[in-house]
Description:
Blueprint: H1 20-29, H2 35-48, H3 52-63
Helix pairs in contact: 1-2, 1-3, 2-3
Amino acid sequence: MPQTHQASPAPRFVPAAKPLADQIAEAIACRSTPLSHLLRLMSALNAEGGNEALRHKLRVRIGAPLDS
């Protein structure tokens, strides 16, 4: 059966991505950030060749005990 109407996808709102440094700062500050998200941020930072200070803060947060 031939189609009589060409449907186009509905436009979606895609918020502007925050800079990686801002994402990392928010993730470090939020104690409920999942470890998987922290690891993805670390991977993105490594791929970007990010700065050592951010990398150190993220490593400390990944290794921090949950009750700290």
